[in-house]
Amino acid sequence: MNTKFKTWLEILLVSSKLGLTSFGGPVAHLGYFREEYVKKRKWLDDRAYADLVALCQFLPGPASSQVGLSIGLMRGGIFGSFLSWFGFTMPSVILLVLFAVLFQNGNVQEAGWLMGLKIVAVAVVAQAVMGMGKSLAPDRPRIAVAVLTASGALFFPSAWGQIGLIAAAAVFGYLFYRKEEVPEVPPLLISVRKKTAAASLAVFAALLLFLPVMRYAFPGIYMALFDVFFRVGSIVFGGGHVVLPMLEREVVPPGWVTDEAFLAGYGAAQAVPGPLFTLSSYLGAVVSGLPGALVATAAMFLPSFLLVIGVLPFWSTIRRKRGVQAALMGVNASVVGILLAALYDPVFTSAIHSAGAFALALSSFALLVYWKLPPWAVVLFSIVMGSIMQPAGLL
User: Fold this and answer.
1) Alpha helices of the chain — where are they, by DSSP H?
2) pLDDT band at 240 (very low <50, low <70, confident <90, very high)
3) Count of structural domains within the chain
4) pLDDT given for residue 355 in this prediction
5) Residue 50: which of 161, 120, 145 has the closest Cα?
6) Among 141-145, 232-236, 311-315, 386-390, whose mean pLDDT is lowest?
7) DSSP string, 79-128
8) Which chain regions cross the lipid bilayer (predicted)?
9) Boundaries of domain holding 48
10) For residue 369, with 0-12 CB atoms within 10 Å meaning exposed, 13-18 middle and 19 or more buried, which class applies?
């Protein structure tokens, strides 16, 4: 077995494990990714990981999926990027297509196992905040940046608010640290040529501009689906929860999907592992069965592929410059702050409504941090405990 094939197989297996166990939404996913890729496998260090997270916060689309795509690209080239996406996304796609077929009008919002999944996300995100805070906000100025960013993110929770806070932290980092010695950072190992990157960005721009024209010239449900989901995947900032109102406006008024079916899909998407953007798979299946699911899924995630392949090679060079490194010292601290704010809202506020829920979150955190159990085992523990505690009225 040659080295490249072994690398690709490893990427697929690791991302598939994450796709089967990463519950709790995009912020929790970043915690799972850090545990697997940074701490366990050491494919990159905390600093490079935070740089990727910061970059993906600026790009439209699903940030956690884009971080996974980026790590796959670094590890195994363009095909490695695809395998990373495939492994992480397909479990969710399959489950949501099954939901569309079998449980379109089912209500899973208050199931005990779902409550357990929401609660374990609190522990996963808290672990990520603690670990990243130690390495990315080690001094008082950067702790202040993290705290101020967290406060700002809570008061201005929009995607544009987050981008503004990250930009302000970059300015602070540049002004405060530009005269200090900054450690040399290893390059992000990107095998994609800059010509290929530029071509990827050109394809992205061309599709965004001309898909509406093609939809008009070649009317049909699949072209319409591709146009809608590509456009939404191209322009939405702020992650999965922000995409919901945009998708609702695109699929409910035309009569493709009813309000009830849309809300059922949202509940299902919350209940499965992987990216919330796979709601597109459910909606595509409701509209036009399995072919519709495949078209909607491909269109929703294609912008992320094109943007990551187009931007990352340039970012790999830019991030090594002294001034950029100083700015990134502020940006990385702000990423800790954004994660800290998300730990409270929506992760904590949507999961902890009782003393029992808080006790289960504390237990899960202790198992992760002090007993060093793998995340999948803690997820399973929380599912079982949620299923037991919810009927007893403890959650």
Assistant:
1) 3-21, 26-33, 46-58, 63-102, 112-136, 140-155, 159-177, 194-217, 221-235, 240-251, 259-271, 279-318, 322-342, 349-351, 355-369, 375-389
2) low
3) 1
4) 95
5) 145
6) 232-236
7) HHHHHHHHHHHHHHHHHHHHHHHH-TT---TT-HHHHHHHHHHHHHHHHH
8) 12-33, 82-105, 111-132, 144-177, 197-216, 228-247, 282-315, 327-344, 350-369, 376-394
9) 1-395
10) middle
